[in-house]
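Have a close read of the entry that follows and walk me through the local backbone shapes. See right below:
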Amino acid sequence: MKFIGAGTRPGQPQIHHDLVFTVPNLLTVVRFLGVPLFIWLVLAKQEYGSAALVLAVMGSTDWVDGYIARRFNQMSELGRIMDPIADRLALIAVVVTLVIAGVIEWWYLAALLVPDLVLLSLSLFYFHSHPDLPGSRIGKIRTALLLVGTPLLVLSKLPIPGTGAYFVAAWICLGLGLVGHWIAAYNYFWAIIRKGRGLKAGAGAAVDLGQNTGDGGRR
């Protein structure tokens, strides 16, 4: 069973509907609502076991909502935009929490934020909003690695056997995830520029055509 693109029905096109209240969108909201619970468990209660469980549930819903959307034809325009944004905000909030708790160093947070801030600035410059570009395979692998590595790192803080192995496995996933994050950001950077320049060129051509048509009408 494949994990990336699971639920895709062979031979049938993937159509994004103008739907709002779908099971995948609900799961995305539920996943994001797990963030304040995680923050409370880590910072207020120091309950790392329960916090790791919350992260595991959040990570599993990320896969489940995609599977349901593709398998049962519940893909929506809202979900296509909301899902990656919710994932990114949730991940940043979780990492900030772990930095405050002393589980992750600040440099890792900076390494996650810098590409996102560059892409956000570029998107606002060209589109004044979301660039509406398709997700990439490397981006999905990156997200999966980060979703696995983060709860493993939290588990390594528990007084249980094997914490050393959890710690090593966590940083293998987080390290590879960070590399994938920068590769995906690089590809996305040039995709935004290409699309943005194409739109500006098209708009400029339309203006020139309108001006020429207007001049012809006055002659």
About this structure: The chain has six helices and no strands.
